[in-house]
Amino acid sequence: MNININNSWKTHLQAEIDTPYFKSLRQFVTSEYKQHQYFPPEHLIFNAFEKCPLDDLKVVIIGQDPYHNYDQANGLCFSVNDGVAHPPSLINIFKEIETDLGISYPSSGNLERWATQGVFLLNATLTVRAHEAGSHQKKGWETFTDSVIKTISEQKDNVVFLLWGGFAKKKAKLIDGTKHHILESGHPSPLSANRGYWFGNRHFSQTNKLLEDNGLKGVDW
């Protein structure tokens, strides 16, 4: 498994990459990718880091696992490749943006356009075996991505963290709330959204206001 990450990340994460647990994780993932169908493709495992350098980062969205069906996962949480049908959670994200900002529902579910504007789309686990949700959890990825969140908290100021659902909300303890902004809501999945825990959170307009109040450009969602 090659570690394709922007140098602005590597400066702060190299010590983590050199730890024994991460070396074991690399061996596990390399073995899995040789023996099984996996997602995302190997060259996109660290796509979130490549598309959003630490220097440019201003918003963080935390997901849990990559999509585990063909042609969906592209290394950015909640994102799918161009031309792929939008999964239910992504549909609800776009619906909330429609209501919140009056933006038309997009044809593409590829969120690379967000990443290149400084939105870091991090899954807690960066790989998954085909059709087996959670199959690469508790192998070391969560330790690594927790370290990534701590690094962002320590190295940056006035980042907007969007924590959707119980899993993401647990990451709040890794973030210094005195110098960052944490917005929480239910998860955009149908189970949560249909119970009233997602729609109306207005996280996208709130994010842009927080960014603009700190002299930063808002995100073109």
Automatic annotation (TrEMBL):
HAMAP family, per the entry: UDG
PROSITE patterns, per database record: U_DNA_GLYCOSYLASE (PS00130)
Enzymatic reactions: Hydrolyzes single-stranded DNA or mismatched double-stranded DNA and polynucleotides, releasing free uracil
EC number(s) per entry: 3.2.2.27
Main location: cytoplasm
Uracil-DNA glycosylase-like domain mapped to chain residues: 50-211
Signal peptide (from-to): none
Enzyme class: hydrolase
One example GO MF annotation: uracil DNA N-glycosylase activity
One of the protein's GO biological processes: base-excision repair, AP site formation via deaminated base removal
GO CC term (a single one): cytoplasm
Descriptive protein name: Uracil-DNA glycosylase
Subcellular localization: Cytoplasm
Alphabetical keyword list: Cytoplasm, DNA damage, DNA repair, Hydrolase
Catalytic residues as annotated in Swiss-Prot or TrEMBL: D65
Entry annotated with the keyword NADP: no
Protein role: Excises uracil residues from the DNA which can arise as a result of misincorporation of dUMP residues by DNA polymerase or due to deamination of cytosine.
PANTHER family xrefs: URACIL-DNA GLYCOSYLASE (PTHR11264)
Lineage: Bacteria, Pseudomonadati, Bacteroidota, Flavobacteriia, Flavobacteriales
CDD domains tied to this protein: UDG-F1-like
Organism the protein comes from: Olleya aquimaris
Family membership noted in the UniProt record: Belongs to the uracil-DNA glycosylase (UDG) superfamily. UNG family.
